[in-house]
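Re: [help] complex structure
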Amino acid sequence: MALIQVNDLYKIFGPNPKRAIPMIKKGISKGEILKKTGCTIAINGATFAIERKETFVVMGLSGSGKSTFIRCLNRLIEPTAGEILIDGEDVMKMGAEKLREVRRYKMSMVFQNFGLLPHRNVVGNVEFGLEISNMDKEERRKKALDAIKLVGLEGFEQSLTSELSGGMQQRVGLARALANDPEILLMDEAFSALDPLIRTQMQDELLELQARLHKTIVFITHDLDEALKLGDRIAILGPDGRVRQIGTPEEILSQPADEYVKRFVQNVDRTRVITAATVGGHATTITYPSEGLKAAIRAMERSQISSVFVTDVDRHLKGIVTIDDAVALQKTGEKDLAVIIKNDVYTTSPSTPISDLLATAIATGYPIAMIDENGHFQGAVSRAAIIAEVNKGYEGSETEMPQTLSDLQDALNDTVQGALQDGE
Amino acid sequence: MDIRSIIDIGGGFEVIVTWLRNNMGWLFSIISDGVNGMLGISRWVLQTPPTFVMIGIFTAIAWFVASKGVGVFTFLGFGLIWYMGLWTLTMSTLALVFSSVVIALVLGVPLGIWGAKSDKVWNVMRPTLDFMQTLPAFVYLIPAVLFFRLGPVPGVIATLVFALPPAVRLTNLGIRQVPKEIKEAALSFGCTNRQMLLKAELPVALPTIMAGINQTIMLALSMVVIAGMIGAGGLGNEVLRGITQLRIDVGFEGGIAIVILAIFLDRVTQALGTASQKRTGG
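Output below.
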């Protein structure tokens, strides 16, 4: 079961908002509903599931209702209709006491402009949530110091928050949210107020933290690059408050659901998101030493390839054998493969983005082997696949592709002839 | 027929005041006793220790709370008051100001919070405060005397009417100005309404509330002479004596003592306001 299940969620601002819902369902436009009822639609029938331990990014431009959405999850904003199930319990049906409990122990929030208390120092801010839940002084101080260490703010415990830079202040915000060890972290444009360099750094640190802590993170952003970088899955909100597409970064880039998403993603450098595993795949291998020269040649002939990877019985990569070397070796009558196994083949992890592989792909003559963190062979990426994928990104975009001289001359001739014909 | 006889505004107020005086006497005597008790305690605290001890205490407060300069000024200024023979009167004025300000804060800060939490309440409160602040002080001296007779008690009440509004206004303003994200953050960590007020809103609003307290004190001090007209005593009396007897020396000496007291109170409360902006610790 998903940790957070949102069913048919609506948030409508304005007088007597419930009467707008039947109008939305009839398909009346946002502008017309506003004119007739004075109601503004912020969230328009959102339904999705957020799994445990995933980073779920909600991405949309300003006015798409993304900030409203995240505030509905902990009911800082009261949703108009729908269901929000956390561990199967409907947040919208909770009484004040139960809701407070969820806010105290189950989920914490990080804010765009930090929302720190100016009259408290760093440790005072970090222990705020614990203090609210009436934890005793020593225990909460200890937990606060742990959280401060986690975000790398040691040495600043006694500083006033106003003395810290934006990036440091947001670390305080993050530490405050982590201090009570919640299962869910709500991050509302958490890095949007930071300058680009610091933002990138904070993103990297969040990824690192998440690799250690495995929280369920709901991250709101208007920055697609940030969404692609952080998100395990991304929900794209349209300007009408409707969810346009939910998917992994790669799905969103390679199969945009509609024109809106397509326009949205066309300017993204897809080579930084598409990974080796996506463009690569199964590669023919032989097992050494149980298979020998004959097996290698047969494997290459059958698959019509010029090289084959060699692994041991545990699928650890030993190297690569080319058809030229194999045929030459066969002529000498030698049967042991060992002498022609080359280990100058390039390797990469399946999650490496292809932008990092491009230079290698152009330089090497062999496919690039994919090896997981245990050293097991996972397949290979051919150079053709990488270059084709990079090229795909330019199709249809407005980038000027190079043209051959003959094409240019033909085009010139056509226009000249066209002009002559017009003149006749 | 005279159109004014249909609705007689002044007469209406008169009727109300007379009715209150005839029927609510018990209430006014309770208030009067309370205020009198408070004045008595303040006066006792301020006037019992020997003068040089009190000057030392005031100087120390100014020195440590505000600055060394204000400390030196306080020492010289209060010494001058002593030299002019106005010490007892000054302390009695300070007791009057102190009592009015304490009552103003006890009423004003909660009223300000209430007004900040509800627009409806604030819509009623705001014109009432405008009325209290702009109605000439002499006008409500009359009912004050009718309710409480002559003496320091109506002085405190009249001062209260005039000095209460800034405490309410600036508390209201301070709480309304607490950034939305701070309130949201407090709520998102599971604050109760009470925790929200005590741990987030009031501390964040404190510098503004302190500015209100400073204003309240200054306005209370500015009422000293007017309150003197209904027998509140203290320095106000001295200044009034200067006016009625055309004694320039008496008038100026009383006036200078009020100015010294005003500067001392202003600098010290302002310094407290600034300090509240830079507090450390949690």
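Chain B touches chain A at residues 179, 181-182, 184-192, 195, 199-200, 203-204, 206, 276, 278-282 (CB under 8 Å).
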